[in-house]
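Lab notes, practical 5.
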Amino acid sequence: MLSDAATRDLLPMLRAILPTGVRGPPGHAAAVRLSIVPTSTTSPERLGAGVAFGIAAYGLWGLLPAFFVFLAPTGAVEIVAWRVLFSLVFCALLLTVTRGWGRFAAVLRNRKTTLALGIAGLVILTNWLVFIFAALSGHVVEASLGYFTNPILTVLLGVLVLREKLRPLQWAAIAISAIAVIVLAVNYGAVPWIALVLASTFAVYGLIKKRVGGTVDAISGLAMETLWLAPIAVAMLIGVGLFSGLTIGTINPLHTTAMLATGIVTAVPLLFFASAARRLPLVYMGLTQYLAPILQFLTGVFLLGEDMPPARWAGFAIIWVALLVLSIDMVLSARANRRTTVMV
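Output from the prediction step:
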């Protein structure tokens, strides 16, 4: 249990990164709202803080492959299982420090939201397993391709699920990215399934979180997801222990410390992301998200020395053109919205 003095020291820092929007007594759910305020009405201080939090979130996510490679020889299944359990412990600590158990209880009483977060947990579990497998098996570059492709799949998912209408430049970005996947499939000699699974699972996860995001704060959401996954994580650890043996605590003290830190590594970027999302206009968030796959790509090519033949460079170049088109569309749309707001 933290002392009163320690709690007083931690609360100001946590308030800076935790989402706001709580209404009513502690038993009511918190609300996380994305900032869609035009840039012209966003103060420079708020904008600067939002950009800093966004860079911190996507920067940490971009460096995750190097962290998971450091955890070798531990396998992906064991890493993910401990990641789930330690994330749950870390979320419980944060809920205690921030007196957030009332918000979590409100989420727990909402069956529809609880079920949605359970599904989100299963989707992100798949994402984590594939991502860590990619990091440990020398496919970090392909993993980065997945997160480069994710914004485009997210747009496509909006059409298929939410019946949204796309603008011409968005359709162009989707068409260009499809060409890139074909080029890369020819280069790999197979469909780049790691990239497609990562992109599709994160797009579906984002869609679910968007549906429940107005009633669930970041900590309560992650706590509920990992609570759903905890029995699966325990079963995974039992299976690893029976068939190959658990590695935690058997390598060296530094490795053990890194394994224990997987919960913090999971939760902290999410909190930074939540803080950035409530400070930044959506166009800034859209552009900031490219930092993670860029860092993953650089890690795979220059730090881990993964092979990049000319055909693969060509495929990535086409994806980057698609993202450029999508980014131009976001900027133009944001400017149009600002003009409409001013006229109104």
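Observations recorded by the TA: The chain has one domain: 42-343. Confidence is low (pLDDT under 50) at residues 1-40.
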